[in-house]
Amino acid sequence: MSILTTQNLSLSFGDFDLFQGISVTIENRGKIGLIGPNGIGKTSLMLILAGINAPTSGQVHIARGRRIGYLRQEAVDAFAARENTVYAEMLRVFAPLQNQQKQLHQMEAQMAAGETSASLLEKYGNLQTAFEHAGGYDYDVRIRRTLQGLGLGEDHWEMPLSHLSGGQKTRALLARLLLEKPDLLMLDEPTNHLDTEAIEWLEHTLGEWEGAVLVASHDRFFLDTAVDTIWEMSRLGIEVFSGNYSAYLLQRDEKWEYYQRVFKEEKARLLKEVDFVQRNWVRASTHARALGLLRRLSRDLAIVDTHGVMGLRNGQKWSEIELDKGPNAGVRLLDVTEAIRKVNAIEMPGRPPRIRPRLTPAHSSGNIVLRVDGVQFGYPGNLLFRADEVELRRGECVALIGPNGSGKTTFIKTLLEDINPLKGQVYLGASLKIGYFAQAHDGLNPNNSVLDELLSHKFMATSAARSYLAQYLFRGDDVFKPIRALSGGERGRLALAILALDGANFLLLDEPTNHLDISAQEVLQELLQNFPGTILLVSHDRFLVDRLATQIWELRGGRLNTFNGTYRQFVLARAELNESNRRILFAPKPLARDNSKETRQRQQALERLEGRIHAHEQALRQLNKALQKASSQSFEKIQDLSWQYAQAQSEMENLMAEWEKLAV
Q1: Cα(63)–Cα(3) distance, rounded to whole angstroms?
Q2: pLDDT score for 438
Q3: How many CB atoms lie within 10 A of CB 632?
């Protein structure tokens, strides 16, 4: 059953057509990923589907009684009162249940006072049943789980919405939308403000979502995990692909081969027909046939103008297109010269322009690229983490992952010798030439033009520099743009062009896919997969990490833990282990020389603490089971269990914070 359908949606700004001809359907429980180049109109389309903006033409039909929830980019505009606390905003979702709860309490007070009339008991029973079926006994638990799942801990719950950062506001709005359970959930780049754990929680939640989901995202791993259909958007509409992102990639390659074959066939036919018209137009014996073909050509070329060459094969019926029978009535009959010009001007449908860079090391490095043993990283007075017996060899790619603030950028700055380790020494191998890609591209001079910035890194003739920049899609006057006027994606392309000049054999990459659309991410991935040197990658792009990394280095609990394998293997291994076993798996080897009394006492304290943590994990699991089975119990029992669960969760967080301090 369809929730939403569209018919020939188009959006124009003056003479500029942003998109046209969009006719799609969203079925119940459909999980759809919307992709396309930056600026193609994905957000504009979602605003139209949500009923916030109107299209230039076309229609949107929403099934009667179906509700749509939309994650706006400006989250604060969606809140009723900015001075509401986070928790109070979540409670607004359950206002009807709170009213029912208040009525139940009033009836309970009446019954406690001795009023036990049959009508009151019947009314109470009916209301209690409705309250229970609507989730009245677990909405508090749902709020807590959702906020915590999205990374908004209890320390944020009593904060006014106006005091939250932009990313926190987005998470709060997403939490409210999930609690509202709309029939169609529309999310515009939902992973932008989430850490990896929150993204994984969201993926799991969407996997169990009972309604439909439409999500616009550049997160390829998310699109691989959370959706079962891909919509690829272009100026000419939307193409639908079954399956997740990886399935889309396979189908897309087949699609382009088919497009090129269709183009050659259709253009050959059009050229043949226009040639016949040109040769037979003035002949009395064949003029009627030439006129018929010209009419057909006029209709075909009208389809090509609107739908591309593929419109001739995708069910667009040229016989239904009326020719001009008066002012502005249908398609104009072309004259012969114009028909010839338009047929010759048809271009082969091609993939969006892609950069074709190469990264070639000037020379090879030694076999050992990086070695760390017993080193502490951070700043004076602020130890972030320690690393024991870590080694990186030539040709490997290691992905450094961990929560924000855990020390990933600090590690890179230490390797670059911008800061010193607090303790120990980092060994960098022989014949290393390091290339650094900064997250904020802060090495670029904002006052330089694109061309001047490139020339400041390597002298070459202006013509050669412009040819080189054209490989990175800086063409024509683009090379004279000041860097301060570039988009994030353009800055990334320029930084990549400069990096490719260095001949580095050891790449330090800090969030290289930030601000890149999917097409640019694919190019970067291909570039790095073909790089013969060594890579240390810091990235939230799990798809890139999974395709490149031979090792995973995770910063967790004040330590650098290593895992040999891909990211997916790492995730599977992590899922198979509970937190206690995971700590054992990642436990660093003890240093034989450190047998001090202080160390032994700390180890004993850690063991006692881990025992308490294990007991709390068991207690939380039991309380969770009890809450799930509590639908037939009294309201007081539900309240008591909810309070116990919240207390146990708070104590667990305190224990984990204490463990992290001791484990450093």
Answers
A1: 5
A2: 79
A3: 8
